[in-house]
């Protein structure tokens, strides 16, 4: 994993992807308000390679996950210091004062140790935003599979699994999940995403017999889509192919 450095956290007032809004409404005669984000819907694809009997996932650095880990570690109580030697002062060193022109929050951010880059890495299904109005969901999904994972899959070979709402308390965006079977013959590139769009993606293969162990291993950071899709495969595809997913 590449090194992450020169980290700076700033307010986000303009974004092509997230629009913070506040809605005011009456519910059963009670005035309420709710803050939410307007964002794009998305597609995701569970890819199963029939040549090697493995699932094809992507692994990438997610800044939001990285910052959540930093916040979580920052709130944990510090480890107890070693007992000072006899005669040594037990008075704690004063907290570092913010530099001139620096807010207290920024001073806290810069003085708190950043976690390793691996803390922001997650395993995910191949996925992408629905931001091309001239393409169908299937065509967007096909494009993402080609760009991120390197497999050329005809639209007709994409099976729609279901759609669902994600982030219902914040975005309420809809994601549509597809299933695609590929073989080594469909692999036309190494994948890895579009560098011009800032994507840096590693293609990862999970053997079928390790899938459910992988899904329930809390030490492996992954999205809910990975867990749900593996369960869907176990319930719907394993009996058809008479193969075990190690459940």
Helix content: 10-25%
Number of strands: 9
Oligomeric status: single chain
Q: Which structural class is indicated by helix and strand composition?
A: alpha+beta
Overall shape: it is: globular
What Rg do the Cα atoms give? 23 Å
**Strand percentage, roughly?**
25-35%
Region (Disordered): 75-115
InterPro entries: NDP_pyrophosphatase (IPR004385), NUDIX_hydrolase-like_dom_sf (IPR015797), NUDIX_hydrolase_dom (IPR000086)
Keywords: Hydrolase
GO biological process, one term: ribose phosphate metabolic process
Structure description:
The chain is α+β, with helices and mostly antiparallel strands and 247 residues long. It has helices spanning 63-75, 104-111, 137-149, 211-216, 224-236, 238-241; strands at 19-27, 30-38, 42-49, 54-61, 121-124, 126-129, 158-166, 173-182, 202-207. The strands form two sheets. Strands 3, 4, 5, 6, 7, 8 and 9 form a seven-stranded mixed beta sheet that branches. Strand 1 and strand 2 form a beta hairpin. The protein is globular.
């Amino acid at each position: 994993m590449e090194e992450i450095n020169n980290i700076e956290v700033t307010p986000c007032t303009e974004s092509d992807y997230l629009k913070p809004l506040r809605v005011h409404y009456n519910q059963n005669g009670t005035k309420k308000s709710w803050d939410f984000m307007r964002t794009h819907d998305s597609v995701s694809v569970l890819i199963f390679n029939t040549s090697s009997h493995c699932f094809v996932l992507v692994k990438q650095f997610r800044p939001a996950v990285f910052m959540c880990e930093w916040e979580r570690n920052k709130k944990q109580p510090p480890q107890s210091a070693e007992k000072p030697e006899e005669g040594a002062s037990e008075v704690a060193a004063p907290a570092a004062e913010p530099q001139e022109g620096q807010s207290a929050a920024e001073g806290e951010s810069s003085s708190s140790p950043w976690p390793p880059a691996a803390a922001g890495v997650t395993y995910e299904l191949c996925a992408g935003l629905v931001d091309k109005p001239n393409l169908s969901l299937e065509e967007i999904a096909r494009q993402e599979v080609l760009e991120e994972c390197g497999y050329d899959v005809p639209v007709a070979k994409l099976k729609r699994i279901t759609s669902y709402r994600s982030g219902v308390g914040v975005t309420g965006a809809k994601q549509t999940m597809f299933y695609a079977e590929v073989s080594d013959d469909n692999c036309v590139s190494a994948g890895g995403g579009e560098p011009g769009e800032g994507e840096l993606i590693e293609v990862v293969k999970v053997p079928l017999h390790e899938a459910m162990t992988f899904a329930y291993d809390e030490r492996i950071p992954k999205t809910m889509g990975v867990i749900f899709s593996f369960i869907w495969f176990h319930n719907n595809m394993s009996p058809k192919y008479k193969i075990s997913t190690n459940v």
